[in-house]
Amino acid sequence: MTLPPEPTRRPTADELERLLLGASRRYTREQIAEGAGLTVEEALRYWRALGFPDVGEEQAFTVWDLEALRGVTDLVRDDVVDEATAVQMVRALGRMTGRLAEWHVETLAEIIEENEASGRGTGSRLTSAYLVAQKLLPEFERLLIYAWRRKLAASVNRLVAIGRIGEAPLLAAPASVGFADLVSFTRLSRGLSVEALGELVERFEATTNDVIFGTGGRVIKTLGDEVVFTADDPKTAAAIACRLVAEIGEDTTLPDIRVGIATGPVVARLGDVFGTPTNLAARLTALAERNTVMVDDVTAKELADVGDFALRALPPTTVRGLGIVNAFTVTVRREPTAP
């Protein structure tokens, strides 16, 4: 990464924070609550929803904290959303942006460390961080809004399609849930350095992200060596699973993988999915052999009419909390066509 010209003096940690926040801390919690027309407890409810700890009497807030609080408060007062919904939306935003911020900082910190170690830096990690922030902040701020609007449009289009079908509530429609994890990851991770473990997890996330989104699914969450995804139909879910096995199973730099899929009504809340298919997919994954895809009977019945996949029935098995389950393994008979 090429850095902007180095400043004539080294920036301080406070100056870096001002650059990132866009303003100085100047308000107490009482002042921003009064400025937004709220009680302190009401203001702190939004602050906690964003994922920040309670603050004392110090000047911890900027003018942008005040503007954000006023904006959310106006939505509630104008009856666009009620207070509970506003808090829920703020909480979702806090969770997603919190992870995004951590991810970006970790990535940039690694770059800065490499630059300093190789002599390509400024001789000060703080100065390098300041220069990187100066260059990246404007572009990534625009990119963040762009990506959010694109994702928003895609999610709305999916709900519009469900509404046209008219067979299920918008947020409890049938879907295929996939659960994939790396085999023997815990044992393998004990023998890896921190750097090697980080590279392995990053490679796993990058591969699963490309396969799932590229095949028409949605990543719900990743948990180190595990990824949960959904698809609107069993065929798409099976295509994703088989491609994950093909790409990761044949990658000698990654452990083997196994995937479980279950289909049925799921409840979507805060970017996650809940219901029997989610639990069953996780259980099937635990039962699957390495580099195999295991599905429930609902998914198998839908795939039987497709012709792109070969199914093999397994003996009925008892799944904890779900009773006796009829499971099938799935392999590709021919490259799946678009759903």
Radius of gyration: 24 Å
The amount of beta strand, in percent, is 15-25%
- Overall structural domain count: 2
Order of helices and strands: HHHHHHEHHEEHEEEHEHEEEE
Number of strands: 11
**Overall pLDDT, averaged?**
87
CATH topology of the largest domain: Alpha-Beta Plaits
- The 3D shape can be described as globular
Name the CATH superfamily assignment of the largest domain.
Answer: Nucleotide cyclase, GGDEF domain
Q: Helix content range of the residues, please?
A: 40-55%
**Category from helices, strands and their pairing:** alpha+beta
Name of the top-level CATH class of the largest domain: Alpha Beta
Query: What is the CA–CA distance across the termini?
Result: 41 Å
Query: What's the total helix number?
Result: 11
Spans with pLDDT under 50 lasting ≥5 residues?
none
Widest sheet, order of strands: 2-3-1-4-7-11-8
Question: Which CATH-level-2 architecture of the largest domain?
Answer: 2-Layer Sandwich
Largest sheet: 7 strands, mixed
GO biological process, one term: cyclic nucleotide biosynthetic process
InterPro entries: A/G_cyclase (IPR001054), Adenylyl/Guanylyl_Cyclase_3/4 (IPR050697), Nucleotide_cyclase (IPR029787)
Family: Belongs to the adenylyl cyclase class-3 family.
Protein name: Adenylate/guanylate cyclase domain-containing protein
